[in-house]
Write a structure and sequence with these properties.
The protein has helices at 3-16, 29-38, 44-57, 61-76, 82-100, 108-112, 119-128, 139-148, 156-166, 169-185. The protein contains ten helices and no strands.
Length: 210
């Protein structure tokens, strides 16, 4: 996709949704961090159902540690890999208290040192909470980037680096949310809704749906 097309691509996404937000429900940076950790291989909808109960019982790192692994697991047992996620949630809560005074750090290395937190999770927190211009590439963004020709890449890291180079700075701060929402609701995995797509004429996908 050429530079002019990329500029127009994001101009249209921005016009359609001027203030994109994550669909994960949270009240504090800590709760967002936990929600993103729980969202691995799970839908935001299923995570929200689980965290409404979890955060009511344990809204802070201290309360999460008190609840313990079994208590956390009981609240999140409806989502995949819940036992391992419960273990990581308690462990990261303890590490936040021990190393950061219970506060979520605004630093990639510090975030990735937390149990259950990888590059994608760190990028989501840095972008959503601390408004840093970083790109968290999930399956939706990976698909949209390759399918449209926006930023092709063999793996998520390659796509992330390509997006960071190709997305205009004007749009970089919110690009993560625009792309994930576009992939979730329009440029879907099984059958993209090309008729309803606001950027279909800019897209390089050959097999557009009618």
């Amino acid at each position: 996709m050429k530079r002019e097309a990329i500029d127009e691509f994001f101009r249209r996404l921005a016009a359609a949704n001027p203030a994109p937000q994550t669909e994960l429900e949270y009240d504090t940076p800590y709760q967002l961090l936990v929600a993103v950790v729980l969202s691995a291989q799970a839908t935001d909808k299923s995570v929200n159902i689980a965290t409404r109960r979890l955060f009511a019982a344990a809204p802070t790192p201290e309360a999460m540690i008190t609840l313990g692994e079994d208590g956390v697991a009981e609240h999140i047992k409806t989502i995949g890999l819940f036992r391992n996620k419960a273990k990581n949630t308690v462990a990261l809560s303890r590490m936040l208290l021990e190393r950061h005074g219970g506060e979520v750090p605004a630093n990639r290395d510090a975030l990735e040192a937390l149990p259950g937190v990888g590059r994608k999770t760190a990028n989501v927190v840095l972008n959503t909470v601390f408004r840093q211009p970083v790109m968290a590439v999930d399956t939706h963004i990976f698909r949209v980037s390759n399918r449209t020709g926006l930023a092709p890449g063999k793996d998520v890291l390659e796509v992330e680096h390509a997006l960071m180079k190709r997305v205009p700075k004007t749009y970089l701060l919110d690009a993560h949310h625009w792309l994930i929402l576009h992939g979730r609701y329009t440029c879907t995995a099984r059958k993209p809704d090309c008729v309803a797509c606001c950027v279909r004429d800019l897209c390089n996908f050959r097999d557009k749906t009618a």
